[in-house]
Amino acid sequence: MSTVCIINHYHSYSDRGAFVQKEPVDRKLIDEAQLKAGAPLPCWDDGGPIVRAYDGAHLELEYRGKTYSIRVGDEQLIDEGILSQNYGVTLFSLTTVKVLATEIVYKGGWQTGSTILQKLEGPIGDGEVMYPNGDHFKGEFFLSYANIQGPAYAAVGRYTFADGSHIERAWIHTSDNRKPEHWGLHGLFRIHHPGGRDSIAMFAGGGRRYGLELFLDEKQPRVKEWYADEEVVRWMEYEPKQVELRLVDYQLDETSRIDCTSLSLRVKEYDYEYRIRQEGGNYVENQYGSNVYGLSTRSTVYWPNGNSFDHYGTSLRKLMPYDGYVTMHDAEKGMCRSELWENGKMKKADEWKRDERAAKAPVMLHARYGRKNRR
Questions:
Q1: 3-state percent helix, strand, coil for the chain, nearest multiple of 5
Q2: Which residue among 50, 242, 244, 340 is least enclosed by CB atoms within 10 Å?
């Protein structure tokens, strides 16, 4: 079965009546099989609201004499209490219920058809996408390019994650012939976290984090390594001790290319230092009288021995290619070749040829934590 609703717990602060902030503190996922008419909502500490009805489109609850009808994609405040009051600052406890879709739900002026280069085809104009995991997108949709198996679309707007963090200007798209109904983030974005610092993360293949995420803390910036929304944990080879991937320095560029973010990092594992460059964004061109949309998500990893690879694909794991095309550079031999990787294994490769970059010294990064160009 699938998750159909989430109970969210927040702490909300107000200073002498003025709202300050709301911070998420806990969340509980409820499966569709757990919802039973006439029974209390599961995972509620004091017995909770009574489930009156659920039909896949909305959930009806009754709590303390009030009735709540919550539609898919909506979140309603169900319970509120005061935890403390000191010197004019009040700490509130808020409990909400958010209803999720069991499949991707679209809203907007949708049109259908599969004619190649049919300009009126697709979700043109304002629309929304609600995801089964609680994410929500709202923005402007347009036909991006024709697909031999049918149309492909793109949209620009605000992407809000289930935990409340969001990307102010995100691009989503669908171009996978196997899953044409699947919309997803694809690029490198600045994420706004509620009550916390911003971060820069790479997404590919449906909003999943891949590669390295940089947390922009002024005092102690740090990185996390992600593979398909799971944090990569590194362990020492001969003893059960987790290895930290330490940030040495970084450089962030969000302005030199339109709607494209570039992030250059120096990280250290043991005494080995790696340089990683992540790029992601979009470009829009005019071709055949219609909008043409394309995306680029790229990682370049420079190894301590001088080797490197340029990775165009969906994921990295422990700074190695996992899926996608790679241009591998052999520093010792001055050769390079293109390779295709699937599920962490090389499936095919071109012949080695002279590497035109072999005679060029790699460009080191010199941006430090205090650089003025950092946001």
A1: 0, 60, 40
A2: 242
